[in-house]
Design brief:
This protein is mainly alpha-helical. Helix content is 59%, strand content 10%. Helix 1 packs across helix 2. The longest helix has 25 residues.
Length: 80
């Protein structure tokens, strides 16, 4: 799972002066690229995986998705 933090969108808009749609698209593209890499690693290790790209407040989105998927374990990387 990769969550695009709502606050990142606002931050990048202020820095780049780009439109919100442009910033969202760039963050979505990055998220999908990252998830694709993770999926490839899992496939190589013969581990089944489902990827999720969400937008919102990361902690809330992680908990919401975990409840929806009835997850019994959540592993969170600190970055990248």
């Amino acid at each position: 799972m990769h969550v695009i933090n709502r606050f990142e969108i606002t931050k990048y808009i202020e820095i780049s002066h780009d439109e919100e749609a442009v910033v969202k698209k760039e963050l979505q593209d990055y998220g999908l690229k990252y998830l694709s890499h993770v999926k490839d690693l899992a496939k190589g290790a013969e581990v089944p995986v489902e990827v999720v790209l969400a937008e919102g407040i990361p902690a809330e989105e992680i908990v919401r998705t975990a409840k929806k998927e009835n997850a019994d374990l959540i592993v969170i990387g600190s970055s990248g």
